[in-house]
Amino acid sequence: MATAKSRERMAKNFIARYGADKFERLFSLLSGGESGQTIATEFNVSRERVRQWKNAFGQEIKLYQVYPEVQKVLDEEIGPVFDI
Fold this sequence. Notes:
Elements lengths: L3 H15 L1 H12 L4 H8 L3 H11 L10 H11 L6
Helix pairs in contact: 1-2, 3-4
């Protein structure tokens, strides 16, 4: 597991090599759910390098969101449960 210091160093190294715009692009691709292979191809690196970046720069969080029509039924039947 990477330390805070090593994550910071990796981020600075990434920006030095690829630039801040590409750093932002990487986050856009990661948050958009693009495959490691797609990202690897765009940055001309291996999927393993993409995996390392992904693990070093953040974490994936999954979210279950209730559909508004289901929320309406919940609110009608048992009162407000979730805020959407």
